[in-house]
Input
Amino acid sequence: MSDPGSGSRTVHTHCPYCALQCGTKLSRALGEVSVAPSAFPVNQGGLCQKGWTAPDVLTVADRLREPLVRGRDGRLAPAGWDAALDLVAGRLREIRREHGPDAVGVFGGGGLTNEKAYLLGKFARLALRTSRIDYNGRFCMSSAAAASNAAFGVDRGLPFPVTDLGRADVVLLAGANPAETMPPLMRHLDRAALIVLDPRRTPTAERAALHLRPAPGTDLALALGLLQLTVLEGRLDHTFLRERTNGFEAAWQQALPWTPERTERVTGVPVADQREAVRLLADARRAYVLTGRGAEQHIKGADTVSAFVNLALALGLPGREGSGYGCLTGQGNGQGGRELGQKADQLPGYRMITDPAAREHVAGVWGVDAAALPGPGPSAYELLDSLGTAHGPRALLVFGSNPVVSAPHAGHVAERLAALDLLVVADFVPSETARMADVVLPVTQWAEEEGTLTNLEGRVLRRRALLDPPPGVRSDLEVLRGLAVRLGEPAERYPARPREVFEELRRATEGGRADYSGVSYERLDAGEALHWPCPAVPSGPAHPGTPRLFLDGFAHPDGRARFLPVEHRDSAELPDADLPLYATTGRVLAHYQSGAQTRRVRRLTDAEPEPYVEIHPDVARRAGVEAGGLARVVSARGAVVARVRLVESLRTDTVFLPFHFPGDGRANLITGGALDPRSGMPEFKVSAVRVEPVRSPVSAVRGGPQAPVTA
Output
C-alpha cells in the first residue's frame, strides 16, 4: 500500500482495535507499511486477522482528506478548514443562545486516546458548558463498572495483569467469546479448564471443559443458583468472608430460593452441570471469574455482574494473587475513555462529577470556578433518544463513534440524528453517521498520531506515529482547540500536542481512584510497565504502578469488599406467539464494532462479506427459510435482512446476528432502548423476534464501503 511519508522507519506501538492493545512493530519501507507482532506480554507475539490487516485501513480509497459541508442542495461538498470550523462555531453559538448550553451534546468513543478523551470532556464542560456528554463505552462495560465500584470501590477491567491468567487452573467466562473477539487472549487460557456460559456453541465454548447454555436473559438466575450450591455444598471460604468482606448474609438470602432444580427450570442448565461448575471453581488452587458483554448488555446487567462477583467473593477469589474477578473490556480504550472525563457522570481520575471535592480539584487544574462545571448528564442512549426534542440537544458533535450502526433501536436513533439542527462528525472514513452529518471533519488515525491508551488490565500504553497525516487532515486535539478558540476560550486551555495534554491530565487525575500522576511519556518510552493507580511521589523512587489491586485491601474506606443482594427478573421483553424467538447479537472474528474500519479491508470482507443470522435447522424449517437464502428477522421495533446460516448446536429458541453491518443488515434495528437502571446499559442481548422468508427482492446486504460522499 502507498505511504504518504518517505524513507524507512519502524515504531513500537499497539493494535488500533480491541482492549488487549496487542503490541506491534509498525514499519515503513519503499512506500509500504507493514505490521508485525511484538513480544508484548498481552499478545506474546500473536495477532488476530484484524491486527495483521490494520495497515490496510491507512490507505482506503474513501479516506476523508478535507472538511465536508452540506450545501443547500443537500449534498456534502469540500470546504476549507476555516470555513468549516467557523460554520460549526457560529451555529453552536446560535443554538446555545436560543436554547441554552444543554442544547448542544457531545458523543465520544472508546477508541479515542486518553488525551483526546480528556480534552473532549474538558471542551464539553468548559467551551460548551454542557452536561450532555457521554460515549459509546456506555454500551460496552458500564454494567461491569457499576458492579465493580459497588463491590470493590473501584472499577478496572482486570485488577490483575493478563499474564496472571496463564497460571490459572479454572476460568469461568460468563458471556465472553475471546476466541473470536480477542484471539491472542486465548494464549493465556490454554492451561486452564474453561467454564463457558453462553447460549451459543462459540469457538470459545468449543474449547471449554464445561459449556453451560442458559437461555438468553437468565445469566443472573444461573449466578444465583451457583452461589446457592456453593453454600449448600460447603464450598464457602469462611475466613475470607469474615476478614475481608461485608454483606454476605443479605446476598445469601437472595440466592437461597434458587435451588438447583429451580435454576434448571429457568435457565435450562442441568443440575449436574451446575454442580460441576461449582466443583471446578472450588477445587482449583487458582481460579478466575470473568464477565463479558453477554452477561452485561441487559437491563439487569449490573445486577448480573454483581451476582458473579458475589460468587467470586464467596469462593474467596478477589484480592489474592492467582485468583480473582475481572471484566473483559471490549473497546481499545474503553478503560481510559471513561475514567478520564467523557462519561456523563465522571471527571478525570474516575472522580464523580457530583462530588464537591472532585469538582474543586478538577476546576483548579482547569483554572475555573467549580460552580462553572455542569452537573451529570443523561447516559448515552438517553442522550441519543433526546436529540432534536423540546428538551434535548439541537446540535451534536460526534468523535470516534458510529451510532447509526452501533446504538440500540438504530432506526429510531437515525431519526433523532436527522431531527438535529446541526450534526458534526469527526472521523477518518465516511461512516454511516458521517454520511448524515452537516459538517464532516477529517481527522488522523492511529498510525498518524501520538498518545496513550489504557488497556483492559489498567496498563497505560504509548501509541506512536509512523506516518505524517495526509495533507488536509488534522488531529482531534487540533479540532477541539480550533472550535474552543472560536467559542471564546483561551487557546492555551486546549493544548494540541498530546504530551502537553497528558501533563495536564496527570495533574487532573492526581489523588483520584484512577491516578495517572506518576505516569509520564518518559517512563513509558523507557519501557516501564505502569498500571494505574500510579501516584506521583514528591521524593524518593518513583511509584512502580499497581499491576494487582486489592492484595492489601479493597478500595472502600474500611478496606473490605461488599456483597450486593440482587434478584433475578425478566428481560424487558420475552418471546410470545407473534415473536416466538430470542435474538441475541455479538461480534465475529473478522470485524470490529460498527465495522466502519474492518468493512473497508478486502481480506476481512472476503472472510465475512455480509450480515447473517444463525438459526437452528428445525426453527428454520418451521419459519420457511433455507440455508443460504435471505431471511427477515422482525422485532417490535424493526427488521433486519440477513443471509441464513443453519447451526445445529444453537438453542432452538434463539437466533444470533453479528452487529457490524450497515443498512438493512443492521442488527440494532431490532434491539430496544430499555436500560439498566444502575448502569444505563441497553439490552442488546435479548430481543423477541420472529424469522420469515424474504419473498420480494431487497437491496444488497453486503457491508463494504459505499459510494463517495462528495458531489
Remarks:
- The chain is about 30% helix and 15% strand.
